[in-house]
Amino acid sequence: MGTARAALRNQVRWAILHRGVRTYGSLQTRRGDPLARFLFAPGARANPYPVFDDVRARGRLVETKLMHVTVDHALATGILRDSQTFGVAFSDVQGVPRFVSWAFQAPDPEIASPVDAPSLLAVDPPEHSRYRRLVTRPFTPKALQKVADRVEERAIELLDGLAGKRRVDIVDEYADQLPVAVIAEILGVPADMHAQFLAWGHAAAPVLDLGLSHKQYTAVNQALRGMNQWFDEHFANLRRKPGDDILSQLVNADPDERLTDLELRATALLLLGAGFETTVNLLGSSVAVLAPDEKSRARLAAEPDLWPQAVEELLRFESPVQLTGRVAWKDTEVDGVEIPKGTAIISLLGGCNRDPNVFDNPDVFDLDRPNSREHVAFSGGIHYCLGANLAKMEGQVGLRMLFERFPDLELAPHGGVQHDMQALRGYRSLWVDLND
Ligand code: HEM
């Protein structure tokens, strides 16, 4: 009876949160709405770039049937940096059909999720400043110097494991494994939980998207529930026996800085999930770009100091996080368009990173591009990615070591399957021949 009631509750919540916006999104996709096309058209996963071009052709800020949208680099940067005018309170979105605003409610209010308050991503100042201050220390460039050696060691272990194999899924055997090991070590999550967290992380990742299928929604909830439960038990252990890690510090903080259980779970979930679900995609997409590009690979082999520049250009060219949104706190104006309080504006980061006003020949991957690092792959303003330095370091070390070990690596025929997600772009699997 309990199970039947839970299943019914799940069905009803899915219908309220996702079915309406899914049906409406599909209708608007057929009518050519550009944001609906990006979110719901099947072809947009494999190739979102024509949709970005369509948005660009319509203007710097485009009103759609869902929300306002932009692929303009300067406009998006301005919005993301202006936390006096724009925030992340999506539960207060106005001016959209009711079921679109419902889609921004938490999947289950009893469990912490990385995209709902009190997660850093979903709170405005002053809460945001308080949480962020508590978690920055392990991610400063100085703290990360120590981590670099561990990234190399872990990469060597994984590459040793590939030796002698002919054809491998490089996502499953390498891109997935490296970031989870690194972030778990920083957070003090035991190594025997890596596989479980990867499974939970992959199942929960669509939580960032709108209009989930019933199957996705159920999987997201189960995974979030599993992670919430595990972290509760882990925090109880850390209270008894603290380690030398950031979660132990948070759990045992002074009473005036202490977080509630929900805040602790939301913070830990976000750090862990953001720490691997994104970097996996940087590594996977980068292999797909570099493997067939013999010229760039020869340059990188001859000039390994170019790897930091290569990673900036890869982040620009195939942005692992494709979008973020902000909601106007007050009536305002953007590029001459009136924006009433409560209006949501989606910045398609992957499109901003192909803005021809900033990047010459934006659709070309170019190791010599002078301004690759102007990309907005890590967003901007107060929510600028906390793990940006870590992600770049993992990209540089992980890719350099892979291509040094397997210089003749090539994509296997019909080798890649993209994720079926809106916010995160990358490969679910990518088969390569190591040619060792
Ligand atoms: C290539 C890899 C990564 C990409 C592309 C990426 C991208 C992003 C983006 C776009 C945001 C901001 C979203 C917004 O403005 O609404 C963000 C926020 C965040 N990222 Fe990353 N990220 C990556 C890796 C990491 C890693 C390794 C960590 C490790 C902890 C991390 C932790 C976070 C956190 C905690 C936030 C929330 C910051 C805040 O709201 O103040 N990310 N990331």
Secondary-structure topology with pairs:
Layout: H1 2-30, H2 34-40, H3 43-46, H4 49-58, E1 62-63, E2 68-70, H5 73-81, E3 86-87, H6 98-102, H7 127-135, H8 141-162, E4 167-169, H9 170-175, H10 177-187, H11 194-204, H12 214-240, H13 246-251, H14 261-277, H15 279-290, H16 294-302, H17 307-317, E5 323-328, E6 332-334, E7 337-339, E8 344-348, H18 349-352, H19 388-405, E9 410-418, E10 427-433
Parallel strand pairs: 2-8
Antiparallel strand pairs: 1-2, 3-5, 4-10, 5-8, 6-7, 9-10
Helix pairs in contact: 1-2, 2-4, 8-10, 8-19, 10-14, 11-12, 12-14, 15-19, 17-19
The structure holds protoporphyrin IX containing FE.
Shape: globular
| Overall number of structural domains | 1
Q: Give me the strand/helix succession.
A: HHHHEEHEHHHEHHHHHHHHHEEEEHHEE
Which structural class is indicated by helix and strand composition? alpha+beta
**Full CATH superfamily name:** Cytochrome P450
Contiguous low-pLDDT stretches (5 residues minimum) are none
Mean pLDDT: 94
Strands in their spatial order, largest beta sheet? 1-2-8-5-3
> Which ligands accompany this protein?
protoporphyrin IX containing FE
The CATH topology annotation reads as Cytochrome p450
* Rg, alpha carbons: 21 Å
CATH architecture: Orthogonal Bundle
Number of helices: 19
Distance between the termini: 57 Å
DSSP E strands, number: 10
Helix content range: 40-55%
Strand content: 5-15%
Instruction: Summarize the biggest pleated sheet.
Output: 5 strands, mixed
